[in-house]
Amino acid sequence: MNRCSGEKGLTMNNKCSKKMDSIARKSVIVRKTKETEIRLSLNIDGTGESRISTGVGFFDHMLESFAKHGQFDLTISCIGDIHVDFHHTVEDVGIVLGQAYAKCLENKVGIKRYGFSFTPMDEAMAEVQAEISSGINTIDKDQWIQTVLDVSGRPFLVFNADFSLLTVGDFPTELVEEFFRAFAMNAMVTLHINVPYGKNTHHIIEAIFKGVARALSEAARIEGSVLLSTKGIL
Known about the structure:
Elements: H1 14-21, E1 26-32, E2 36-43, E3 50-53, H2 57-70, E4 73-80, H3 87-104, E5 114-115, E6 117-121, E7 124-126, E8 135-140, E9 143-150, E10 156-160, E11 167-168, E12 171-172, H4 175-187, E13 190-197, H5 201-220
Parallel strand pairs: 3-4, 6-8, 10-13
Antiparallel strand pairs: 1-2, 2-4, 5-9, 6-7, 8-9, 9-13, 11-12
């Protein structure tokens, strides 16, 4: 069922239900270059099911977490030149995933536009102020990740995260920023990712992927019938 919240996000009225049922927010993107061949399908009103194969194990794990915590149905098949390095594969998947998300939101009437959530994990609780510039704070063990998202049609990335390790397994940590830059530019979203503190590099990166997914899901939620822009366009 498509996401559509009523009072306190717990109920759904008939008008909203009928509106959502008429919208299929799904997309399929196929992209082939000399460096990568990618087929990706995305349903942003899914259940978190995923089938991911990029040839990069840690990256697959992050994308599975992304799908689960965003409640996106996501299938990715990527054949890339990973014998060279992982850069082309990671960046190009970001490009295609961004294009798919943008295509799912071709009609932005009624969407919440800004993403935020409350995310408890273990001993920590992330809290977000409910205001115009909404955000998401995600805690993963000893990590606090703040993600602020605006589905604005004006792509921009702010990425403030320091990793103590250059690689997690064989995955270069510098590619995390490259992935989200590629995603933001092609999804046409303004995305701010901040990591005020954290020690374990794996935990930090995983918290970022989960936090971004939750913000994207929240921003895409249909809450009414108004386009949230004084310009009349997003």
